[in-house]
Specification:
- The chain is 46% helix and 14% strand.
- With 406 residues, it is an alpha/beta fold.
- The strands form 4 sheets. A 7-stranded mixed β-sheet has the order 2-10-9-8-7-3-4, sandwiched between helices. A two-stranded parallel sheet has the order 1-12. Strands 5-6 form a two-stranded antiparallel ribbon.
- Helix 5 crosses helix 6 and helix 13 packs across helix 16.
- Bound molecules: pyridoxal-5'-phosphate (PLP).
- The site of pyridoxal-5'-phosphate has 13 residues, from helix 5.
Amino acid sequence: VFTAARVAAAPEDPLFGLMKAYREDPSDKKVDLGIGAYRDNNAKPWILPVVKKADDAIHNDPTVNHEYLGIGGLAEFTSAAQKLIVGADSPAIREKRICSLQTISGTGAVHLGGLFLAKFHPQNPTIYLSNPTWANHHQIFSNVGLKIAKYPYFHVQTKGLDFDGMLSALQSAPEGSVILLHACAHNPTGVDPTQDQWKQIATLMRARSHFPFFDTAYQGFASGDLVRDSWAIRYFVEQGFELCVAQSFAKNFGLYGERTGAFHFVSAPGPDAALSSAHVASQLAILQRSEISNPPAYGARIASRVLNDPELFKEWEADLRTMSGRILEMRSGLRERLEKRGTPGSWDHITSQIGMFSFTGLSEEQVMKLRTKWHVYMTKNGRISMAGLNTNNIDYFAEAVDSVVR
Ligand code: PLP
């Protein structure tokens, strides 16, 4: 019989354990480079000015109420989210072969996609995840019963992409495998394929009939340019792939706690594509209904106002440049400081990597020394959240890194 006494304690989530240790550290020098959330130059959460504006407008709108949204979410939000990721002029939209549901942020979108594939893929497929990847991918896909395999991604020596390793793993994966791809600003490495490499990945995946599952959590946040950060997805759509996309608005709108995201399924082009797309949409709606019934309204209302208003959209793009620009400054500032000190090792990867994170190459031992001796908190794999650096702590952090690698 079931009894709570049989339930063993779960291991602590490593990231949340790290946050707790940081909070409990009384040092006034402490630096938090753990959590993947944007911080301003004073290490404080930043409400995007455009989000504040949209939020105020919602408060003053007498037509807004607290009714349920539909199962698929706020229609003006999902249609705008769709245009944002595949492009307003995408053949997938024109040919009515993309369907979109609002989800519980990116996590919920990844989950809905995993659940859908587990249920409707005829072969109980294996999903291939980059090694390493966002840790939650493993939990989400195993929870829905997908088999998980890894493809090489990070090259330890170059601290860049292990492109040959990646291609050969995708080549030998069983035909029709599901391949999880980070659309931009790969988490945790900050390493992305170049456009030419993406083209080669697409060619190989097409030859092997693999199914691309894109995870996009950093559009606009990575380069500051929404189109550039969605290039890979748009390219795969143009190439006629059937694919899906899990889209998060947590980082690029700073709507972390509002759980704002979308799941998109693009059917392959063809005479029956629109019909297949409608079938997929109807099945996704049933899955969504049993899991969350209907998604939360608040964050989607904010994002929708911004995405659908040309003036606010422009302001949002400026806010994106503020965030990505500050992170780029921290990247070049850190590299410059380490190189000036003659810190052993090469540090050009700090500026070639992109997005929220940098995979520093620091060992677990060095990470622990940074924590105990310098009150600097980062994950054991040497990943730092670039947004945790600012003009007040960057010198201190460079000094700390220099001391632990010598
Ligand atoms: N996917 C990746 C690669 C991420 O890094 C994240 C957040 O860190 C997510 C998805 C989902 O985040 P959220 O559920 O907060 O949108």
